[in-house]
Amino acid sequence: MESFKLSGPTRSYTFGGRRLEHWKGKEGLPEGRVAETWEVADRGSDQSIVQSGVWKGLALHDLLRQHPELLGSTLLDPLGRFPLLIKLLDVSGAPLPLHLHPDDTYATENALRDPGKPEAWVILEADPGAWIYLGVLPGTSREEYKKAILEGRGLGAMRALPARVGDVYYLPPNTPHAMTPGIVFYEVQRNSDLTVHVEQKGFFGEALAEDEWRRNVERFISLASLEPHPGTSGFLGRGPSLVNTPYFALEVLNSRSSRAISSRIRPEAWSCVRGQVRLSWPQGTLELERGETVLAPAGFEGEVEGNADLLVAYVPDRGKD
To answer: What is the pTM of this model?
Structure first.
């Protein structure tokens, strides 16, 4: 069983920039702003494509339908999709707008195809003076938060955290969040695109009509968690376990020379966020540069050699993990 590189779609939202093109594994990005690169994606026409090995050129969705044995203990979601969505994000062209991702209750009540969306971040680059906004300040009421947003003071009612390389954050659904420019981060999430925006412009910079914006504010306020966010949930240098939820787990593999590596009972997405490594197994080898992701199928066993940090994302098996 071989591991294989994946490459997926990009997004050109207004908050994006050109920082990822300096990563060796991200050469050849499209021109203009690049806000997101989707490392592992199985969302209709938005697909990761296999870049190496015997399945080169296949979309991830088609590969998993043709070879379900690659999934091991991991189940596809109710829509028949790989259950995780993994991205790299560059917030350097403008602030990441204030928004949140709804929960399962909202998805069910509105008969939406996508489920609720928890996510986790790992900060990979941070300029001096860059800030992250997560959740509301303790004691803030729903009416106070709504008033602040309508008056353009929404971020002032939120917890502000200095962006630091290596910090890890877990965001449950309904967590309000935003960022100043100057941050590059890794994101793993449930395979969902549910989002409620609260700015007067969309992610592509389009102006919203007054009534549409006010409807968004009402929806946002009704969903927003008023529980203070606890802040960081881990640090890249204190692994291996960074985040563990029912929907995804995230670990870090710090390679400093040569070591055995295994995907165990399920597929794992290994994303190189520092350095470069060589993966080898009895049937082949693969060079992995910063910014590249491989999917190791269930049961993969091999060796990793080099000086690098790999973020390892997978769906936990609650009976065995």
So the answer is: 0.96
